[in-house]
Amino acid sequence: KLSLALEQFMMSIVSFDSKYDQFLAGKLSLTESEERGRKLFFAEYNPFFPELSGADCAHCHSGPNFENGEFMNNGLDTDANFKDIGREKVSNLAADRATFLIPSLRNIAQTAPYMHDGRFKTLEEVVDHYNSGVKMSSTVSPLILPTIAKGLMLNEEDKIDLVNFLKTLSDQNFLTNLAYAK
Description:
By secondary structure, the chain is mainly alpha-helical. The protein has helices at 2-12, 19-24, 32-42, 88-91, 123-133, 156-167, 172-175; strands at 71-72, 100-101.
């Protein structure tokens, strides 16, 4: 019964009033930088036309909660450097080595440090990883594999814009709701 009560409470905790949600509802506009970041977030990676290429985030971070419910390896380490075998510890399947559940990006600006092991302290470091730091391994996600050779090809302005968009996913009403306070 306790687990059902806990599940019911957790299912009631919903973030739905971020700046991005308000933008989608037509209540406000994004800044120029946030809008450029939004377009980069949802645009496909295109190694042949860098000027048209996006950050390709939406394959893994999609839907209303900006997640996909999948376990994936996002290229943090090579096979020789795996310190945490991730889902393989539970499944006992080599294909799950160093795979982790894709998290929601809702309120991401408030959830540092980032990655399963907290190796990145800022969103800028996270974007840098995907832009030019993805490492090859036997279980790296096929969704991220094409970006390893050239990276995402984001320039400094692109990276700033992408981080500014990610910050629009913060829901101040949710974050300050006393019903969820410690």
